[in-house]
Fold each of these.
Amino acid sequence: MKVKVSVPKGTRDFTPDVMLKRKYIFDTLEKNFRLFGYVPIETPALENLSTLLGKYGEEGDKLLFKILNSGLDNKIENKEIKDISNKGLRYDLTVPFARYVVQHRNEIIFPFKRYQIQPVWRADKPQKGRYREFYQCDIDVIGSNSLLNEVELILIINRVFSQLGINVTIKLNNRKILAGIAQKINAPEKLTDITIAIDKIEKIGLEKVKNELAQRGLSKEQIDELEPVLTLEGSNLEKTAFLKTYLEGIEEGEKGLEELLFVMDTLRETFPAVYNLIEFDTSLARGLNYYTGAILEVKANDVAIGSICGGGRYDNLTGIFGMDNVSGVGISFGADRIYDVMEQLNLFGNVADVPAKVLFINFGNEYLPHIYGYSETLRENGISNIIYPDNVKLKKQFDYANKNKIPFVIIIGENEVNNNTVALKNMQTGEQLELTLLQAIETIKND
RNA sequence: GUGGGCUUAGUUCAGUUUGGUUAGAACGCCAGAUUGUGGCUCUGGAGGUCACCGGUUCAAGUCCGGUAGUCCACCCCA
């Protein structure tokens, strides 16, 4: 009987051609992380629910995949959720990393620079560029307050995306500036409402944002005072100049502005090309509420898709696990979205690899001793090869080479064994030569 | 969580408007023409409980309801 098979909602299989492209992205990321001295860690797919709950806001808690305790299959009726589930799938890599730091604090050498490339799970409703299982590629520096870390993260972003061929804009803001603005209009407790509303300015326009702010309990006067921030335009320098006056006397806001300026000035002076990608954007808020300083988000210039990388500074993430005063800053690359962007812009080019360079034709077991010897010699020369496992019609074997885009076929039969040669056929040109093994290796290497 | 579109062969899709005998095409797959030479061509073949469950009807791929999946927008996010 035929069974209907499928993967669960919002998850995907990755076929070999897709995997080869994904690996190219992961390799590019990893290579650059290593160049800046980050070391890898991994954490379990499962975390205790107590680790995860309450870290992502109300919305995040709803999107957590909770795991049924084992051995309870038939007993779940009339039980509270907390009784039947005390584990969940990780929602991101940052919170598990905070847990990791607290748990391993005695072995870790601070400042600790780690990278982590693993899937995360969210019970979101899937749509374009949004999956229930997707990979995050995180780098964080923990145990250092220096703003040089922020600068470094931007340099890494630049290297990665220029190597991948994606034109990006790096949007930059600072949570302290947002807090300062909220103080300026006498609504510090409305910080979250304000950021959620102004985050939408590009999408829905000024008037609707003002309506939303009113709905969220801001007075007419407060909204009027906020308006110059909402409509703020111009170069980075013009914007910061405005805020310098606007936030004068508000300590937290001034501090945020100072931090932002340090990062931007450092880049402008030493990496002007990178600085050109930076856009100070007061409407950048980012949902997660654990950020305290710099926040940044990377957008692809040529494709309409959500952000492909984002992050920021969190002064006290480990505080929720009882370890205070450890500041961290990090970013997360969204590999799946980067893939979608590159696919849309046709940036993979010749990344896709072939399974092997050479296919050995199978004429029967009597030739195997020769073929095995040759095959090993090719491998020692770094040439990947496949011996066709069945002695079937040549048409089928050649077909196999064609379909897999294997560029060379080697035929060894009676003639070749007698002459101590191989017949090397180039599948693109159709040219076939009788050569010694060494000549064949040279030909393949020169291809 | 809210709203909308879609679901027919391995794949991409016709057919649904106006219910009516045996549901089609292209590509792919298998075999042969061609047993030491692939791509092209020709011939033949296999492959569908029309997503699932129920309803209306003499009759449902076609109409109605529900469920699931998928895509899109919103919310939120990578």
Amino acid sequence: MLEMLPYPSGALHMGHVRNYSIGDALARYMWMNGYNVLHPMGWDSFGLPAENAAIKNNTPPKEWTLSNIAAMKVQMKRLGFAYDWSREVTTCLPDYYRWNQWFFLKLYQSGLAYRKNSKVNWCPKCATVLANEQVVGGMCWRHEDTPVEQRELEQWFLRITKYADELLRDLEKLQGWPEKVRIMQQNWIGRSEGTLVDFDLGGTVGPAGSTITVFTTRVDTIYGATSVQLAPEHPIVTDLIARNAELRAQVEQLIAEQRRAKEAGDIGNIEKHGVFTGRYAKNPYNGEAVPVWVANYILMDYGTGAIMSVPAHDERDYEFAQKYKLEIRLVILPASTDPEETMTAPPLPFTPTDGILVNSGEFSGLGCEEAIARMSAMAEEKNFGKATVTFRIKDWGISRQRYWGTPIPMVYCEKDGVVPLAEKDLPVLLPDNVPITLAGGSPLASVPSFLNTTCPKCGGPARRETDTMDTFVDSSWYFYRYADAHNSGAPFDTATIAYWFPIDQYIGGVEHAILHLIYSRFWTKFMRDMGLVKNDEPVTRLFTQGMVIKDGAKMSKNLGNVVSPDDMVARYGADATRLYSLFAAPPDRDLDWQESGIEGIQRFLGRLYRFYLRNRQVRNSPQADNVPPTELSSEARSLQRKLHQTIKRVSHDFQGRWHFNTCIAAIMELVNEIYSAEEAIAGGRVPPSLILDVQRNIALLLAPMAPYLAHELWEMAGETGNLLKASWPKHDPALAAEDEIEIPVQVNGKLRGLVVVPAAASEDEIKQAGLADEKVKAAIAAKQIVKVIVVPKKLVNIVVR
RNA sequence: GCGAAAGUGGCGGAAUUGGCAGACGCACCAGACUUAGGAUCUGGCGGGUAAAACCGUGGGGGUUCGAGUCCCCCCUUUCGCACCA
């Protein structure tokens, strides 16, 4: 049972309290059901806020982070979450991050970590690089108002794309994950099957034989291609503008437009512009030379950065062709059972894939799908293209120009170039007393004692890599460490992992649907391939809880609507705080925090407590003197029935849908029932053994959700053993059963009366009782009964005319 | 634009399979206890009516003896994706 570990910002917020209250309730429930539950906690403790705090308060990141951890641990303990602290994982400590470095070396050896000069996302506020996943709508994921810039930098990348296909395919296996998260990952991976086709530029531009390779998912429409469109940053364009000043100016404008749109996050709405290069490229299928354009709606980082433009069968191409009066050539007709329709030209652009090819040489008459297969095969045969698969997901850039992260264990030697450290030289320790600025550039580069080292290969002078790792590296495998937290010879022991993994249940916010959860899946697959783990996936079941809302908005410091857990605990107690976070909404939905709501919970707990206080003497009653149900007073029998019904309802919700709000409501109903039986209890009409039974069971039912009070009540009921080791109660169906039930009687579907019948009444008896009801009689007087519907135990409906 | 989820009293939310809509809690009203009540206990509480009738689950149609629940169309909100070739 695992909840996502927090970033140690200094204080828990209500979102954490909710997340951990859900997880703790489930862990405790599982313990009471006899399972061996591993329920750990840790700290995702590298990252930028520690550096910001260092600047602001002049406190070293390490000090700030460790004191935050200490403070938050106190908060967690106060809330009563049952974690195994002996397995605590703190990612910023060397005994953890050394294994990040170890993994990095393994990745490097496997060719999965590599260095590349590339255009990267740069957040000026963070003064560091961001992974693609950390760019949200053109903005930094941490600074919603800061546009991400593009910079050219040399960076370390992890080859997550090697697993792109498997990451996509295995989503199928994750049936215990929310559909929504699977779809988000599927979109992120963005697999697309298509064809690469070379358009020959030979004789028209550049050196003879040079080609433009386009990527298309609709090669079947290629006879309708009337131009080729290049991304403004395409290498061929770069080459062309080097020799054409006029074109250069125009292309630069396109680039600027594209960049602006990207930064504004509305690249989807960019006004399509283009410029003709004056060159032509040859369509290898029909030998036709089509004009080559540069257009701002073509992105260099998708596919090949070049497309064939088929205006008749693509919306974007259609729009573009209309604007520039390019030829629009129809090559697909609708395939319809109606021959008339098949012959008529469809409204343009016509994009379905179930049409029939026309004007397409030898391929005319084929259906689209078959045409795609045959045309791809032909391209490969004749060596001008091939079927291919592209992905939207890119390799994971992990270099960060920051101090507070895992040092990357590589050195640069003048003689030997890039050299990995040996495993025995790990960990590369993060030095203390490093001046932190947000000036940009890696802070570690300013620390000579860190920077200057010797080459592991030749022993000559070398300098260390000064970038640190993205913190998502830390969280990609932290949960494995819980299972073997003190292993100093390996990240963990494989056999131990095989016992605990995959994680049965992981709980956290949906905001990690892509970043953390896709990196973790990648990391697991890599570890499996190196033989370190046996599972293909880290997490069998994932649950994403809703946000905590106040006054209609997500709690945030900016809006000033945060509720402090410490305040709540001080005013209402830990149990009430936890219980309210479970009661106010089902866990998958957003929760609206209302101060008056938690007061109601506190009242309920008080009511419950007073019942135990008033009836302390029952603890001495012999449990064995059970009175047969038939000999109980009606008040006692009602109470007994309600008790067993409550056990049934609470157990059911714990096993199924985790609607703790209705669990708590059920226990409240039971307490209300107790209060209505108060007089009977005082009058001695409820046997002490039954009262004691009620007391013991309520303590058990409440134990997962309100542990402090539950333990106290458990003792008040005369028990001394550990409540978590007591078994979860079972209801007795016979005792839960009603003797009599109320049956609504409808006439033509409208409620007209209520009759009380024995629970075991036959259909006919129910029907007769319904027909005999005075109100019903009145409603059907002078009407003809067409039929009578009797649903056993549910209702009677009399249809009259 | 595409995809998903949601829409129920004054509020948070119940109604697990088509079967008494509004459990439970909050707020509110009344009463009891009390010097006092922001404590506690009891009762009331969708709209409407003197009481009924009747009307009520975003709107409009439909299926059914019966629809919050199933089907069709539409509206609103939230989230995700968005020239992905």
Amino acid sequence: MEETTNAVNESKATNFIHEIIEDDINNKKYSTRINTRFPPEPNGYLHIGHAKSICLNFGIAEKYDGWCNLRFDDTNPSKEEVEYVESIKEDVHWLGFDWGGREYYASDYFQQLYDWAEELIKQGKAYVCELTPEQMREYRGTLTEPGKESPYRNRTSEENLDLFRRMKAGEFPDGSKTLRAKIDMASPNVNFRDPILYRIMHQEHHRTGDAWCIYPMYDWAHGQSDSIENITHSICTLEFENHRPLYDWFINQLSIHHPQQIEFARLNLSYTVMSKRKLLQLVNDGDVAGWDDPRMPTISGLRRRGYTPESIRNFAEKIGVARRDNVIDVALLENCIREDLNKRALRRMAVLQPLKVVIDNYPEGQIETLEAINNPEDSTAGTRQIEFSRELFIEQDDFMEIPPAQYYRLSVGKEVRLRYAYIVKCTGFEKDENGNITVVHCEYDPETKSGSGTASKKKVKGTIHWVAAHNAAHAEVRLYDRLFNVEDPAGVKDVDWKATINNNSLVVLPNSYVEPSLLTTQPGDKFQFERLGYFCTDKESPTDKPVFNRTVTLRDTWAKIEKKNN
RNA sequence: UGCCGGGUCGUCUAACGGUAGGACAGCGGCCUUUGGAGCCGUAUGCGGAGGUUCGAAUCCUCCCCCGGCAGCCA
């Protein structure tokens, strides 16, 4: 590896890990560049918690002119699949990071790890054990009592070497033997109570095929993999803190490069679950439509929901990195995507739950073309033409037969502005036999056309959105809400976490209307539907009738007023 | 009750012995042809008790509370 000079960038450290690294750089602790790595196990899809780690590790490489490797910790073939490898690579790239071809696998190091295991055996520091799993548990002791030594602990190196080689050769059935480090069965750190290094698994591996029937345990593989890759700072979550002394012990026995492990607190998000086991269960049980269901906290789910990589990276920046347990309010995530989309998303009008409006004094058959602003936050986004006519659709919510105070929308006798068009006054409405309002009648004031200059003569408190009936496009809109009803589904006592699932987390509106310009939308396109929220075109949206996913609502002051009044 | 780690506004996060600050959430207001956006203002916090010091969130002692660890998972 070539010599490089690490330099502390102008930007100051923003968390305790940056501080450690800057100290190391200033003290010239390493002659090489700063090397980090993101080490997922390919046994599921990445989630927002991984995004925190990805941003941290790749962010450090960017900040300090270092490298961040992508390494798959694929030491357990019974749980790992190529599908997951592919999804992980896609998600890391989508977030905007690149591992520069340094795509590594723990399985690349199987031979080296095996050789090191033989070395440990020769040193008399590892032995082949034949305890059953049940016996193993008994012998391990408890958190407060020491364990006891395995009867197989004092075999000779020659015998251990022979047995271990025969394990590798496939002479023994699954689970019949293990290779264990010989350390200290009385250690207060249970990780030192002769940890298992290898187990027998006659299981095909997604990369090595049937080349191996013994597989290294994570603890035996992880630290040495970091060492092989010359990782300077091995950043992981808090639960591995107790393992660090063990990794150090292995590294010392083998006299190899010693990466510095630094632990941080994993991300928890309110109103969701984050463990891969639980996410897999939601997928397998059909509670969601898949790993990329827009309600999932997975990166692919957020992507399908309409989140941008920038918003997620900004989120990772805002939540910070520390060692105390934390639960981030999902409102912060939502704020990040609103902030991003407010600046970038084109505005369009969509009526989710249509109610017909007839403007009785507007000439039948007449069509006017109006100019609408694409994004008031971005003058370069320009304008578009929209058509106005006698019959239109408005939102059912924007008319009330008996309006409460502070309701600025339509009711009989009241006036509102139709966005980009005229001020209209409600003159009446029709109901069907079930009492449902079917049509609202209005009269418009021709003097109030938007942008006409005369518009300013009259002021109304409310402006509502609409879609002209003559050229409205049909659309399906999917309204997503939080997947769980409680802040910490996994933490509620005496209640199965699945019982806290929000049954209204998805509401499908199959009969919405949108501006005809939206007919040409492509999957992933993002819009603000005025007054409603941000939406994106679903990845499986058909071309004749688009499907839009609601990413997040707009901040809704009216909803707040309503809530307060109730 | 063994070992390791952690406690700063409601939620996150700063402070590195020298005025406890920022963000989100909340509340109040301004503005507005999106009840959006934006702008202004505002309340709320160092787990507790001692000690060291001119001065402590920061250093020391004791206590309290919370998290992790007993897979042939990672």
Amino acid sequence: MKLATWNVNSLKVRLPHLLDWLQQSQADVVCLQETKTEDANFPRAEIEAAGYQAAFAGQKTYNGVAILSRQPLQDVQVGIPGLADEQKRVLAVTVGTTRIIDLYVPNGQSVDSDKYQYKLKWLEALADWLKAELAQYPELAVLGDFNIAPEDRDVYDPAAWAGQVLCSESERAHFRALLGLGLKDGFRLFEQPEKSYSWWDYRQGAFRRNMGLRIDHILLSPALARRCTACTVDTAPRKLERPSDHAPVIAEIG
DNA sequence: ATGGCGCGCGCAGCGCGA
């Protein structure tokens, strides 16, 4: 089973890339973020024609998450229980015996911003919820745009980014707290090339110069981590015309 | 030097992302 996450930065604009990539990757479950598409406009027919069922929670202009699956989706849940949040950032479904959670963690803008405080509160609520989810679902996968580079090796220029949003100690502590629940960072289960990233700024030729951050992650419960045979970033879509600024991350579960 | 790019919205130029 192949599980993937991809921040598409507008599903409408990226739909041709997504359809090509579904065909190429043969992913079984794909978590999307920043669909920026209201549910009434979700491209259900195109997704179904590609062989996928979809669950989605979108809004106009900002945010929006969707989960595509070749197998039937069940028990769809939107948002973090108990967290009042109008922003569509969380979607959970069950596929077979696996619980899939799709996250678009708040960006935070900058460490002195109100949005950063919202991000930290949000991450606190997330950890509480995931603890309960782990107790309920031994086969749990949490995929998405975490907007956190967990370690310096996930940053092209750690000195320049030190203490900045996406790399701050508080954000990293929240990420480590998720690992503390027993979740494994799928990417780090394996030896990886140095300077592996999942996001590159559109400006300054950042992708060409590999000035990136690894902020898109696949976290796996112990039972799934044991069965995980690979986890990679697929940079091919980032090389296309009019790409998303994020690349897909994909994990294979045996 | 606070910008560079790309998106949505909506028809000019701004807010936002990371």
